[in-house]
Design goal:
The protein has one domain: Up-down Bundle (Rhomboid-like fold). The relative contact order is 0.15. The longest helix has 26 residues, at 84-109. It has a two-stranded antiparallel sheet. It contains 8 helices and 2 strands, in the order αααααββααα. By secondary structure, it is mainly alpha-helical.
């Protein structure tokens, strides 16, 4: 994807990005044991703090890059419109919400694997961007086709639901991605349409 980022990133979006990147390299260096920080299924090592800490761990450099690229491209625009406080509330509501949905799915399916990654929060940002700038064009990396943000979000959400229901791309927490979007939408509706579009305070 390609989008125009603001010339100077607001502090919290940049801080989130830097902290997540640092956490990844500390993780792969062996200085940090990620076991207690990943999101484990209930009954298999779950602790409440994992609903936040799992979002700062990633399974590979590509996983990290894709999430941080999306955070850099969309996070500053949303933060500039909403203000830092509201942006952070939204980001972490999406992150925790994605974790809760993933916990529910792993409980129902009996999957023993932990979950890591900021994708749930990032999917929430994609939803917010699509609602705020529905006609802004996003250039996909593959295929290289420009697509309006509203159609991109709808298509991505539908594909994620399809992948989750069919078990396609096993090992990817598709329902966590959907959870981030669902909780993000719920928060936006809670704020109300006029409040949602009001520029940051």
């Amino acid at each position: 994807m390609n989008a125009i980022a603001p010339r100077s990133s607001p502090p919290s979006a940049l801080i989130l990005l830097v902290v997540t990147v640092v956490a990844f390299f500390v993780q792969v260096s062996g200085l940090l044991n990620p076991t207690a920080l990943a999101l484990w299924p209930v009954g298999l090592g779950f602790w409440p703090w994992q609903l936040v800490t799992y979002g700062f761990l990633h399974g590979s450099l590509m996983h990290l890059f894709l999430n941080m690229f999306a955070l850099y491209m969309f996070g500053p625009l949303i933060e500039r419109a909403w203000g830092t406080r509201r942006f952070l509330v939204y980001y972490f509501v999406c992150l925790v919400g994605a974790g809760l949905v993933q916990l529910t799915v792993t409980y129902l399916t009996g999957a023993p694997r932990p979950t890591i990654g900021a994708s749930g929060a990032v999917f929430g940002l994609l939803l917010a961007f699509g609602m705020m700038y529905p006609n802004e064009r996003i250039l996909l990396i593959f295929p290289p086709i420009p697509l309006k943000a509203k159609w991109f979000v709808l298509a991505y959400g539908a594909l994620t639901l399809f992948f989750g229901m069919t078990g396609t791309m096993a090992g990817v927490a598709h329902f966590a991605h959907l959870g981030g979007m669902i909780f993000g939408l719920g928060l936006i509706l809670f704020w109300g349409r006029s409040d949602f579009y009001r520029r940051g305070r």
